[in-house]
From TrEMBL, chain A:
Family: Belongs to the class I-like SAM-binding methyltransferase superfamily. TRM11 methyltransferase family.
GO molecular function: tRNA (guanine(10)-N2)-methyltransferase activity; tRNA binding
GO annotation, cellular component aspect: cytoplasm; tRNA methyltransferase complex
Record keywords: Cytoplasm, Methyltransferase, RNA-binding, S-adenosyl-L-methionine, Transferase, tRNA processing, tRNA-binding
EC number(s) from the headed UniProt entry: 2.1.1.214
Superkingdom as given in the UniProt entry: Eukaryota
Subcellular location: Cytoplasm
SUPFAM superfamilies xrefs: S-adenosyl-L-methionine-dependent methyltransferases
Domain tRNA (guanine(10)-N(2))-methyltransferase TRMT11 N-terminal: 3-179
This protein's name: tRNA (guanine(10)-N(2))-methyltransferase
Domain Ribosomal RNA large subunit methyltransferase K/L-like methyltransferase as annotated: residue spans: 192-309
One biological process term in Gene Ontology: methylation
TrEMBL record, chain B:
InterPro entries: Trm112, Trm112-like
Pfam families: Trm112p
Annotated family: Belongs to the TRM112 family.
Domain of life of the source: Eukaryota
Protein name: Predicted protein
Biological processes annotated in GO: rRNA (guanine-N7)-methylation; tRNA methylation
Naturally occurring in which organism (per UniProt): Laccaria bicolor (strain S238N-H82 / ATCC MYA-4686) (Bicoloured deceiver)
PANTHER family: MULTIFUNCTIONAL METHYLTRANSFERASE SUBUNIT TRM112-LIKE PROTEIN, UPF0315 PROTEIN-RELATED
GO molecular function: protein heterodimerization activity
């Protein structure tokens, strides 16, 4: 077991641990989080995680959207004495680089800028490591990085360099790999997409949700509220086949349906298994246990609320006599609370054992209690993660259910 | 792009139409062949969910006779490749699917089947 220092993007804190554990589960390895709650606080930018193999750290860096970079962990401390003591005990990790490895040494800080003179002092303080190789700022063999983490003091007036050295904690390690999955956020940027709608999900969240579905080649996923397909592209990018349905066929119509155009742009058109127009509450699936995951951003709100088949009120005889060819089935509003509860029950039927349901649910932050989601849990389903995207007075939650036991019938 | 894999999973769901409602019959089907990436794991994993007779009958009706009438016990590569072709590469772009029991017509346009039901057909 080795320790790795992870630097995270400081967004969507509540998604960090669910994403890490999902990717680890997908690739069949375990990760051990630091024991003290303070050190696994997801609002902090650094976390030291124990992994069996260096390759696991690289897998995480290539798949987790929130990872900025991964380092081989050499030490941490509340002051430099503690850091150096820790670094000395891990000498075995770095002694092989001392002879003739070219290196670069970076001293940097989170929430702060360290003056150049002190950066130099810090570098000098590591002189006991005895690195004899060439200093190479452009193409070094290894990059050693020392991070000081400062508390957030935005909104206060400070002198230049005020509080320098009064960091919360300092970390040190050797760069293993830059997180490459963050580049996908720009690739799937909705603004650059060939086809999107006014409620298309932004790319970062849809990628985070895609990771929670354990999307991978050979898997079959289903989005019952396909819309403009925002959830389908990232999951297909990770190799899964995706089937989409929606009660409103407009998004899918056209000589080349919009969803296919966007999928073609991302090179995943062949992984869109199929599209169909139907109301998921009246679905034509022949049998259950079909999908590895159901991932969806259900419609909500007044402007783009969910619809289901049925009429709001009965037709008058004169209306009934009117010729309304071609016949368009009437729809009525679909209450969000009903929708969410139905979705969980539907997932229990349609998911394979161990399958996952990942969906977005808007909640009012003040009124939210854990009960909200747990009231929807039915037998055989389990909430395994529940992350909030906070907009202040309200937020959207990504809830992830896992289907544990297959039904008897 | 109603692929035969999708066709093999859809049954008529009109209220009261619960027997002999599968498989839906293609009518005036306009076919298109499109290459798809071959993933033997996916095909293998999906095999238990397939209604074999429905798949073979439909494939033959659409002019593909590469699949045996009985599902073989041995899954060799040639068989998986044929199955891959039938399930994922034959697309029905236009036409409709008819329920053998209640004769409901599900139209397919630009490869998207419209499975919506009219108000008198929902329970």
């Amino acid at each position: 077991m080795h320790s790795y220092l992870f630097q995270f993007a400081q967004v969507h804190h509540e998604f960090r641990l669910p994403e890490l554990s999902s990717v680890a589960e997908l690739h069949g390895f375990s990760l051990s989080l630091p024991p003290q709650p303070e050190h696994r606080n997801p609002t902090r930018p650094f976390m030291v995680i124990g992994l069996e193999d260096e390759e696991h750290a690289r897998i995480l860096a290539r798949r987790c959207i929130l990872i900025k970079s991964v380092f081989v962990f050499y030490g941490q401390g509340f002051n430099y004495d503690e850091l150096h003591a820790a670094n000395r005990t891990l000498q075995g990790e770095w002694s092989r680089f001392t002879h003739d490895t070219s290196f670069r040494f970076l001293v940097t800080a989170y929430n702060h800028k360290i003056p150049q003179t002190r950066q130099r002092e810090v570098i000098e303080s590591f002189s006991y490591m005895g690195f004899l190789g060439k200093i190479d700022l452009k193409n070094p063999d290894i990059i050693l990085t020392c991070f000081e983490e400062y508390d957030d003091c935005r909104g206060t007036t400070r002198e230049k360099h005020e509080g320098d050295g009064h960091f919360r904690e300092v970390f040190f390690g050797r760069l293993l790999e830059e997180g490459s999955a963050r580049l996908l956020i720009a690739k799937f940027d909705v603004k650059k997409r060939n086809y999107y709608g006014n409620t298309s999900m932004e790319s970062e969240i849809s990628l985070l949700m895609a990771n929670q579905t354990l999307a991978a080649p050979g898997k079959l996923l289903y989005d019952p509220f396909m819309g403009t397909g925002s959830m389908a592209y990232p999951t297909a990018h990770f190799g899964a086949m995706v089937f989409g349905s929606d009660i409103d066929g407009r998004q899918m119509r056209g000589k080349v349906p919009g969803v296919i155009r966007a999928a073609t742009q991302y090179g995943v058109a062949s992984r869109i298994l199929g599209l169909s127009t139907f109301d998921v509450t009246r679905n034509p699936w022949r049998c259950g246990e079909l999908f590895d995951a159901i991932v969806t951003d259900p419609p909500y709100g007044v402007r783009a609320g969910a619809k289901r088949l049925g009429r709001k009120k009965e037709l008058t005889p004169t209306q009934r006599d009117l010729d309304d060819q071609p016949y368009i089935p009437p729809t009525r509003p679909y209450e969000l609370s009903h929708l969410a509860a139905d979705l969980v029950i539907l997932a229990r039927y349609l998911l394979k054992p161990g399958g996952r349901l990942v969906f977005f649910l808007p909640t009012v932050t003040e009124e939210y209690e854990e009960v909200d989601v747990s009231t929807m849990v039915c037998e055989g389903m389990d909430v395994i993660a529940n992350s909030l995207q906070d907009f202040g007075s309200w937020g959207r939650r990504v809830s992830r259910f896992s289907f544990l036991h297959p039904l008897a019938n | 792009m109603v692929r035969l894999i999708t066709h093999n999973l859809l049954a008529c769901h009109v209220k009261g139409c619960t027997s002999n409602n599968f498989p839906l019959e293609f009518k005036d089907a306009k076919l298109e062949l499109r290459e798809a990436e071959y993933n033997p794991e996916f095909i293998r994993g999906f095999l238990p969910k397939i209604e074999w007779k429905a798949l073979v009958d439909t494939a033959r009706q659409l002019g593909d006779t590469s699949l045996p009438l009985e599902q073989p016990e041995m899954l060799d590569d040639e068989f998986l490749k044929n199955l891959h072709h039938v399930l994922l590469e034959i697309h029905v772009e236009e036409g409709s699917m008819i329920c053998p029991n209640c004769k409901h017509d599900y139209p397919i346009s630009n490869g998207i089947p419209n499975m919506l039901l009219a108000e008198h057909e929902i329970g």
